[in-house]
Amino acid sequence: MFGLGDPARLDEDRLARIALNWLFEPGTRAVYRLVQRFGAAGALHRLLAAKVPDHRLRATVEARLAAGDPWQVADAAATQTERLGARLVTPADAEWPTRLQGLHELTLPSADRRVDQETAPPLCFWVRGAASLGEAFQRSVAVVGSRAATPYGLHVGTEIAYGLAERDWTVVSGGAFGIDAAAHRGALNANGLTVAVLACGVDRPYPMGNTALFDRIADVGLLVSEWPPGAEPLRPRFLIRNRVIAAATAGTLLVEAAARSGATQTLRRALAMKRPSMVVPGPVTSAMSVGAHELLREYPETRLVTGVPHVLEEVGRIGADLAPPVRGPARPQDALDDESALVLELVPRRGPLGPDALSARTGFDLRTTLRKLSLLEQMGLVVRRDDGYLLAPAATRSGRAPAGQPVRRADSSPGGPIERNGT
C-alpha cells in the first residue's frame, strides 16, 4: 500500500522512513524534527552527507553504515513487507491514527533515561491485518498489565476486554504473556477487534509462546510495529513501543502491575498526555498490584475502575456513557418513611405486641402508630393477630434482623460486579 499522490515522490518518502527507522530507534526527537523540516528523504540525504549539527546523529549514522546501505536496506524491507502481505502506513495515508499527535507534547517528569526523553511521534508503521489502522484506534482502549499475572488479574483483564469488544471498542495491548494476552483473548472471544502493538518485526512476534494468538490477531485484527520485518525484540524497544499504546488510544487501563512493571510506564505516558488513565485495584497483599496501587496514590487524576461501565464512563461520550449508580437489591421497606421504618423495627418476630405497647416504645401517639401499622400490614411486612402485631416472615427474609442483631446490608462494592460475558 503506497498511499495517494505522486508515486515516485511517495515511494522515496516511504523508503526514506524505513531507512530512518533502521538507522535510529523510533521516537528519536532530533530525527523527527529533521523530517518535519526537510521531509523524510531530505532528512535522510542530510544525515548520510553528515550535514547535521548533532554529533550524536552523525556518530550513529557512521556506525550503522558499517552494517549496510540504508537505501538498499529499505528496499529489501519493502520487498519483505509485500511478501508478508503486510503494508507500510505513513502520515500521508488516510488510515494514519490522528491521536499520535499527542506525542508532540509528551514530556515525562524526571526523564533521566533516553527512552523517556525520545518520545517523538512515529515515522511509519508496519501493519498486518485488513482493518483500517486509524478506525481501529478511533474507539480504542489500551488494556495493559503484568506478564506474571495472577488468576485474579487474568480474570479481570479477560472480562473487561470482552465487555469492551462487545460494545464495539477496540482492545489494544502489547501481545505479551499475562494481562496483554488475556485482553487480546477476551476481545477475540467477543468477536471484537484487537490490536497488538509489537516491539519487534510483524513477522516475528514475541513471545513465541503466543504465536497462535498472533496469527489469530493478524487474521481478524491488527499487528502493528514501528520496526521493519526481522527486527528483534530488544528490551528498550518495549518502552519505546509503550508510548504508541498510550498515545493512539482513547484511554489506558492498568489491570495489574508489580512495582517495576513496564506496564506502569505505559500509564505514566498516558497521564503525561492527560489521557484517561485507569487502574483496577487488586488485593493489598498481592505483589502484582503494588505498582498499580502506587499510581493511584501518586496521581490523583488516575481513576479507580472495577468494570466495563466505569471504563466507558472515562473514555466514552461525556454525559452519555455514565456508569449506573451502585445499589443493593430493592426491598419494600426501602420506600418507608422514618416513622414507619421505626415501627417496623420494633415489631417483634415472636410474642405479638399491641398498638399501645408499640406506641410507648416508639414515642408516637396511638393514632400515628395505628396508621403506620396499617400501612405496614398492607405492604405485607407485618401481620395482625388478636393480641397484637408480628413481623411477617417475608419481612425477616428481606432484611429485618432479629432483635439484638445488626442488619446485614446487601453488598455494594464500588462499580458493581465484573460483568460475566460467557467467555
Please characterize this protein's 3D structure.
- There is one protein chain.
- By secondary structure, the chain is an alpha/beta fold.
- It contains 17 helices and 11 strands.
- The protein has helices spanning 7-23, 29-48, 55-65, 70-84, 114-117, 133-138, 151-166, 179-189, 211-220, 235-248, 262-272, 290-298, 308-315, 338-346, 355-362, 366-378, 393-397, and strands spanning 87-89, 125-128, 140-144, 170-173, 194-198, 222-225, 252-254, 277-279, 303-304, 382-385, 388-391.
- The strands form 2 sheets. It has a 9-stranded mixed sheet with strand order 1-2-6-5-4-3-7-8-9, sandwiched between helices. The chain has a two-stranded antiparallel ribbon with strand order 10-11.
- Helix 14 (338-346) packs across helix 16.
- The chain starts with 6 loop residues before the first helix and ends in a 26-residue tail after the last helix.
Total of DSSP H or I helical runs spanning 4+ residues: 17
* Approximate helicity band: 40-55%
| Largest sheet entry | 9 strands, mixed
Estimate what percentage of residues fall within beta strands. 5-15%
Q: How many E strands?
A: 11
Q: What's the gyration radius in Å?
A: 30 Å
3D shape: elongated
Distance between the termini: 36 Å
One letter per element, helices H and strands E, the order comes to HHHHEHEHEHEHEHEHEHEHEHHHHEEH
Q: Which structural class do you get from the secondary structure elements?
A: alpha/beta
Strand arrangement across the biggest beta sheet:
1-2-6-5-4-3-7-8-9
- Please tell me the overall pLDDT: 89
Low-confidence stretches: 1-8, 397-423
